[in-house]
Amino acid sequence: MLDLGSSFVASASRDPNVIALVDGDLRLTYRQWYEKISVLVASFDQVGLKPGDHVITLLQNRWEAATLHWACQFAGIVITPINWRAKADELDFCIENSEASALFYQDVSAEAVRQSSRAGQLRRFPVDPGTSEAISFAEMIEGSAPDAEPRVGADAWSIMLYTSGTTSRPKGVPRRHRAERAAAIAHVAQNLYGRGERTLGVMPLYHTMGVRSLLAMSLIGGTFICLPRYDSRQALALIEKEMVSNLYLVPTLYHDLVHHDAFAATDVSSVRKLGFAGASMTDGLLKKLNETFRPELFVNHYGSSEIYTFTIDQNAPAKPGSAGKAGINQHIKVVRIDARSVAELAAVGEEGEIIALLASDEAFEGYWRRPEADSRALREGWYFTGDTGFVDLDGDLHVTGRVDDMIITGGENVSPVEIESCLSLHPAVSEVAVVGIADEKWGKIVAAFVKRNKPVSEAELEQFCRTSGLANFKRPRRYVFVDGIPKSPVGKLLRRLLVAGEYETERLPPAGAA
Q1: HSE of 483 in the Cβ direction (CA atoms, 13 Å)?
Q2: Locate the AMP-dependent synthetase/ligase domain: which residues (predicted)?
Q3: Half-sphere exposure (CA, 13 Å, Cβ side) for 207?
Q4: What is the pTM assigned to this prediction?
Q5: For residue range 429-444, what is the model confidence (pLDDT) as tens digits?
Q6: What is the Cα 64 distance to its own chain's centre?
C-alpha cells in the first residue's frame, strides 16, 4: 500500500495540468499544488516540526487547510484537525490529549486561541493577516523548494480525528496512511467516481467525510472545490459555476439546499451522483432529492471516523431506510443489545447493536490513550458501533438509531428513526426529531419535535401517523413545535438537548396554524 505522499506524487505525475483545487479565484493544477506543498514541507523543517509531531488546525475548508493536510502527509506529521468553532477549553483538551507541537488557525478561531491556556506553549501560525505571531502561513508558503519526497511509509500515522463528543469527552481516532488510502479507494469504488470528477468540498476537513472527499479526488484526477463555510446560496452558486459532478453531504445540508429559495433557479444538472452519510435520511427528503436531481447514482454510505465504511446502498431511493450491505472492505453483524459475545447474533428483523470487523483495511486500531473507551468498543476483533439496527430478509441493514437513543415505553422498544421517517412524509413537516421523555407511568413517552412549514395541528399529525400504519405504541404522545432542531456543526441531530429541554419553541407559527 502506498503512503499518501507517494500517492499524491503519482497523481501529480499522472495529471500535472488538471485543476486539482479551487478556492474562489484561486485555481491550482496538480503540479502547481505539489510545488506549494513542497514549499510548506520545507518550512516545516525550518520551524522544527518533525515526523510524528501532531499539528492542530482550526480552519475552515479553504485552500490553506487542504494544502496543510497534504504537506503533513509528505512530512510524516500527524494532522489533527478540530472544529474551527471550538471553545478555548475544548482546544485546551485537544492540545493536551494529542501533545501537539504546533497550531494553525484563522480569524474566526483566533479568539479561542487567545483564551486558551495551552495554545501559548505551541508554535502558532495564522493563515489570516493581522496577528502578532512571528511567522504566518503566507510566509511559510512563499518562494520555491525542491519537490518534496515522502518521509514515512504506509504504516505511519496520517491523521487524528476527534469524535464529536456529544455525550462525553471527545476521543482521538488516530489513523494510518494505509487505512486512509484504503478508505479513499473504497470511496471512489463505492460511489462509482470516474476520472475528472468535481466535488463540492464543504464537509469539514476535521470530519471523515470531508477528508474522504479530498483524498478521493486526488486518486482520480478530480477537483476539490472549497466552500469554507456552508451557505446554501453559495453552495448552489458553486455547483452551477464549477459544474460540480458529485455531492457527498449529510442529510441536513441536502435539506437546506433543496429548500432554499435559490434552488429552483439554479442549474444543478451537472450533478449526476449523490451520496450521503453521517445520519439517516428521512423518506421525505430521500424522495424530494431523487425527484429534483434525478441522479444516476444515489448512495447511502454508513460508516464512522473509526472505520470508514460499514455498509453501502448504491440505490438508496429504491429501498428507503436501507443502508445496504457491507462495503468492499468490511464485514458486519448485528448482535443482541447488551450482548457479551459477538456470537450472540440478533435474529433476522430483530433490532440489535451493529458491529464491524476491525480487520478491515479501512479500520483504526483503537482510541488515542483511552483504554477505557477501547474496552467498551473493541471486543473479540470487532468494533461495537453503539448504533442499533436490524437485517431484513434480503440481507440489507437498516440503521435505527443509537443504543442510547432507544425509547423504552411501556416495556416496548421504539426506534426514533422510524417515527421521524413517517412524519417527514407529511407536507407540512420541514424537519422532525423524536426522543423519549421521562414519564411516571410509561417510563418514557414518545415525543416529536416538529419544525413546520405550513399550518398543521397535533391532531392532524396524529391522524397522519395512524393512517400510515405506525403501531399505536410507536405514535408520539407529545408534539412540540419548534423553530429549529438542534444539530452539531456537521449536521448530527443532538437528541440529548431536546431531552434536556434545551430548545426554543416556535415563536411565530405559520399563517393559520393552530
Answers
A1: 7
A2: 10-368
A3: 24
A4: 0.85
A5: 999 999 999 887 787 8
A6: 20
Q: Rounded to whole angstroms, how far apart are CA atoms 107 and 502? A: 29
Taken in order of first residue, the domains within the chain and their CATH numbers are 406-499 (3.30.300.30)
How far apart are the C-alpha atoms of 18 and 382, rounded to whole Å? Answer: 41
Tell me which residue has cell 439546499: 257
Is residue 54 within 8 A of residue 81, CB to CB? The reply is no
Grid cell for residue 202: 464543504
Sign of CA dihedral 346, 349, 350, 351: positive
Question: CA–CA separation, 42 vs 119, rounded Å?
Answer: 23
DSSP-derived 3-state class of residue 176: strand
Per the listing, cell 408520539 goes with 476
* pLDDT digits 0-9 by tens, 278-304: 878 888 899 999 999 999 999 999 999
Neighbouring residues of 164: CB distance < 8 A, sequence distance ≥ 6: 170, 488, 490, 492
Helix (H, G, I), strand (E, B) or coil at 475: coil
CA distances for 201 relative to 21, 63, 247, 416, 431, angstroms: 10, 10, 9, 31, 25
**352-390 burial by CB neighbour count: b if 16+ within 10 A, else e?**
bbbbbbbebbbbbebbbebeebeeebbbeebbbbbbbbb
Question: In the prediction, which pLDDT does 166 show?
Answer: 47
Sign of CA dihedral 194, 322, 463, 416: negative
Q: What pLDDT score was predicted for residue 511?
A: 67
Element containing residue 190 per DSSP (H, E): helix 177-190
3 state DSSP class of 229: coil
- Decide if 243 contacts 223 (C-beta within 8 A): no
| Cβ atoms 227, 201 nearer than 8 A | yes
pLDDT single digits (tens) 20-50 = 999 999 999 999 999 999 999 999 999 999 9
**339 neighbors 384 (Cβ within 8 angstroms):** no
